[in-house]
């Protein structure tokens, strides 16, 4: 079909018993073989197989010379198969005037180059009009023009969305080789080869080490989480690669086309597609794992689903985690109540521990003696939910414990206020389920707490499901947190009339962002912009702490927030949680009230004040001053 010459030997691809090694030949000449394999209606399967074999046995710099009538289906296959890594030229072959045919023969020459390089096609067709079938040549010229437009877009540096076939053809280089830091978006799957198509990103780990658990892995991103910074941004995706411990990771994004499709079907559909992206020698490697962001929930009971115009969809649910306590004995599993915002489904907004209500135990005992056995079982099962209540002495979020521990920075002032009976003004922006302010009220009885919540429905759910309640010590204001701080500053100026007030204040920002693609999950960006920071500084003008729960996987975003705080506040401290992405920042405009010279003594003072246990010592060991 095509022929070659090597050391005086002549062979043919049609010899099935002859297998040549990769890169065996300098030149391959095809004299109508491709045209014969691709008779109209025969499809491209044989032609594709034929060209793949020709490419395999050619040396780097070798030539594939194809004589063809360049019919549209044949030329289309040549142009696409030799798009990446081949220098391609075409010209018409002049025929003797006495042997003129109705069809023009073309010579297409492909020179094997570097994979991934795209070059425009060289053509001399416009110079050979006197020899050509003009209609046939014009069709070829149009096809070459369209192909060169495609090639120019690939070589322009724009991140063109490739297909899986493009990758197989070498659009981003040799897929069998890991290229550290290589990242490319592409479409995985085609109607002819898979049930569905998927948007995907191929990522080769930036650092190649011997500690990889997997040579290749697949990470499936559900539609609900696709807009989160961790998955939508390049920086976030590299975090996922590092966490996955895979030399190559293929991130696959699900969308509305995959709604209500069983995950096993998705994995089965993806498996043969991913095989084509596997580096190295697949036979020597372990099976490719499928990973997906999950929450480790063993049991889930949805109590209410609600939708707010401000926050969007919300879910209140009771959950039991897998191996929640690590205890496989007879002890009951712990159950938690969670508030989850749909806009950030990867993050649980609030979590509380459910414990048995001792008052309900008394009722159960009475029912036990008064009910028939069968009826009793039904009643106990039905009433088991009612026998549980929220434990407000428990903090479900470790960053909340860190906020409490960070109060060691002002422990002496807190101790003095407690001893004198003076209340410490504490403002918390962001209610959530109300777990933190309820803990704060019980743990530090001398603080006056004002919570500001933008969404009335959030406050309603906190009261209905999480035992949140208000009194003289704990109040809730519905409205905008930034405006509340501005109004508080104005009210303080009016009340003081220029006289100094010896009162410590605490301002806590614990609000999630609705714009997850920005890389800043908490707080919203306007809470870390200069106008609000200046108002926060004014509020704490007599001394105190400005506390921010910062959640960002982006180092650049984190540095931006820190630099802004440094400009406004003289003192800035950080408490980074090792097991989480939260970082708690503590800022103060002056040294007044700060216990920065003897933190050990300050920790001891704070612990004397706390009514609930908090591991202050462990947290404070991680406290760092940011200069």
UniProtKB/TrEMBL annotation:
The keyword Acetylation does not apply. SUPFAM superfamilies: S-adenosyl-L-methionine-dependent methyltransferases. Coiled coil: none annotated. Residues 354-367 have a biased composition (Basic and acidic residues). InterPro entries: Lys/N-term_MeTrsfase_sf, SAM-dependent_MTases_sf. Pfam families: Spermine_synth. GO terms for molecular function: methyltransferase activity. Keywords: Methyltransferase, Multifunctional enzyme, Transferase. Residues 374-384 have a biased composition (Basic residues). Residues 354-385 are annotated as: Disordered. GO terms for biological process: methylation. Belongs to the methyltransferase superfamily. PANTHER family: EEF1A LYSINE AND N-TERMINAL METHYLTRANSFERASE (PTHR12176:SF78), SAM-DEPENDENT METHYLTRANSFERASE SUPERFAMILY PROTEIN (PTHR12176). This is Methyltransferase type 11 domain-containing protein. It comes from Panicum hallii.
């Amino acid at each position: 079909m095509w022929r070659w010459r090597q050391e005086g030997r002549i062979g043919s691809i049609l010899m099935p018993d002859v297998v040549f090694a990769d890169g065996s030949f300098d030149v391959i000449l095809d004299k109508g073989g491709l045209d014969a394999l691709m008779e109209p209606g025969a499809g491209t399967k044989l032609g594709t197989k034929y060209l793949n074999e020709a490419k395999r046995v050619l040396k780097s710099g070798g030539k594939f010379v194809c004589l063809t009538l360049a019919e549209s289906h044949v030329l289309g296959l040549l142009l696409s198969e030799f798009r990446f890594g081949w220098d391609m030229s075409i010209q018409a072959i002049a025929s003797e005037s006495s042997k003129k045919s109705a069809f023009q023969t073309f010579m297409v020459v492909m020179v094997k180059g570097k994979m991934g390089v795209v070059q425009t096609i060289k053509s001399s067709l416009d110079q050979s009009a006197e020899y050509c079938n003009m209609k046939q040549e014009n069709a070829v010229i149009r096809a070459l023009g369209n192909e060169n437009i495609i090639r120019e877009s690939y070589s322009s540096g724009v991140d063109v969305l490739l297909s899986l076939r493009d990758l197989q053809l070498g659009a981003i280089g040799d897929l069998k080789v890991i290229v550290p830091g290589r990242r490319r978006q592409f479409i995985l799957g085609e109607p002819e080869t898979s049930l569905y198509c998927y948007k995907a990103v191929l990522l080769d780990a930036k650092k190649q080490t011997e500690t990889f658990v997997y040579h290749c892995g697949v990470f499936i991103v559900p539609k609900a989480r696709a807009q989160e910074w961790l998955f939508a941004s390049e920086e976030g995706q590299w975090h996922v690669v590092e966490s996955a411990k895979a030399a190559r990771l293929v991130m696959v994004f699900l969308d509305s086309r995959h709604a209500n499709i069983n995950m096993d079907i998705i994995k089965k559909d993806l498996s043969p597609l991913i095989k084509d992206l596997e580096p190295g020698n697949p036979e020597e490697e372990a099976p490719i794992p499928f990973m997906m962001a999950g929450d480790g929930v063993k049991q889930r009971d949805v109590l209410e689903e609600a939708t707010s115009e401000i926050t969007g969809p919300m879910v209140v649910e009771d959950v039991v985690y897998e191996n929640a306590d690590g205890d496989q004995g007879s002890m009951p599993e712990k159950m938690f109540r969670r508030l989850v915002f749909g806009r950030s489904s990867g993050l649980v907004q609030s979590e509380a521990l459910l414990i048995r209500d001792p008052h309900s135990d008394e009722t159960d005992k009475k029912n036990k003696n008064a009910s028939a056995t069968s009826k009793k079982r039904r009643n106990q099962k039905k009433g088991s939910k009612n026998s549980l209540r929220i434990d407000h002495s428990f903090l479900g979020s470790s960053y909340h414990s860190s906020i409490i521990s960070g109060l060691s920075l002002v422990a002496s002032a807190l101790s003095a206020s407690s001893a004198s009976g003076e209340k410490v003004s504490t403002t918390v922006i962001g209610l959530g389920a109300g777990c933190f302010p309820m803990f704060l009220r019980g743990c530090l009885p001398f603080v006056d707490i004002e919570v500001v919540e933008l969404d009335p429905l959030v406050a309603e759910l906190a009261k209905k499901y999480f035992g949140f309640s208000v009194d003289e010590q704990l109040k809730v204001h519905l409205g905008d947190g930034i405006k509340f701080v501005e109004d508080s500053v104005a009210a303080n100026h009016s009340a003081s009339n220029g006289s100094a007030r010896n009162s410590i204040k605490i301002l806590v920002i614990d609000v999630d962002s609705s714009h997850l693609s920005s890389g800043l999950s908490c707080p919203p960006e306007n809470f870390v912009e200069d106008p609000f920071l200046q108002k926060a500084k004014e509020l704490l003008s007599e001394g105190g702490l400005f506390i921010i729960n910062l959640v960002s996987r982006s180092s650049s975003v984190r540095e931006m927030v820190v630099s802004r705080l440094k400009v406004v506040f003289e003192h800035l401290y950080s408490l980074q949680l090792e097991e989480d992405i939260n970082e708690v920042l503590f800022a103060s405009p002056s040294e007044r009230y700060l216990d920065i010279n003897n933190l050990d003594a300050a920790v001891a003072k704070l612990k004397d004040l706390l009514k609930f246990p908090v591991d202050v010592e462990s947290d404070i060991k991680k406290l760092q001053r940011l200069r």
